[in-house]
Amino acid sequence: MAAVTIQCCAPIAREPLSETDAAELAVLLKAVADPVRLRLLSMIGSHAGGEACVCDLTDAFDLTAPTISHHLKVLRTAGLIDGDRRGTWVYYRIIPEVVNKLGAAFAPLTEPAPNLELTPV
Amino acid sequence: MAAVTIQCCAPIAREPLSETDAAELAVLLKAVADPVRLRLLSMIGSHAGGEACVCDLTDAFDLTAPTISHHLKVLRTAGLIDGDRRGTWVYYRIIPEVVNKLGAAFAPLTEPAPNLELTPV
């Protein structure tokens, strides 16, 4: 294990975003800027085997199946998740390349810098 | 310098978010889920000295001053930026602790794991 001391700030705060990049990032952010969709994304990503049946997701919320389906569709349209129908149910999984675009914009620096140190523990 | 090989996925995709955490994170995400606000945030964070005069920000957009002020207020209300009036103008700066909450949710793993290695360069 290693402790990583990070310096301020996220890439988004280190150089001006272009209009195009800002527009693309805003589409992803709008898709996740909802408590139900954030919880759905976290439940799908952390589910055993890396995918979750829509039946499990719907049972976890006090919401109707059509409402859950709407939120899943928003996440899927943004490219954050994908799904396959197998038998009765659709199984959803995270698309890490797309989720990681959010991480790339907001992650603190990970490369070493004068005020960053990697410390073996 | 060190190369960091990261594994999939973001923390948000590794364990289910609580309702409370999801609600708090959604407030921050809604504040940044707009192309103009993303560009404002990146311009403030990357400005010389770590702060930007509202006069510089307004000049960079083909938008009215009240529209820019509205977007700055949304960012400020969410706690992502703060501002001080000095003379005629307000000067804005990033609040890194709050911006980094977004990074913490979406950043890929940084701690070592079986498929992660830290390589001195």
TrEMBL record, chains A, B:
It comes from Acrocarpospora macrocephala. Signal peptide: none annotated. CDD domains: HTH_ARSR. The lineage of its organism: Bacteria, Bacillati, Actinomycetota, Actinomycetes, Streptosporangiales. The keyword Transcription applies. Keywords: DNA-binding, Transcription, Transcription regulation. PANTHER family: ARSENICAL RESISTANCE OPERON REPRESSOR, TRANSCRIPTIONAL REGULATOR, ARSR FAMILY. This is Transcriptional regulator. It holds the Pfam family HTH_5. It comes from the Bacteria. Residues 17-114 form the HTH arsR-type domain. The keyword Nucleus does not apply. GO terms for molecular function: DNA binding; DNA-binding transcription factor activity. NCBIfam families: HTH_metalloreg.
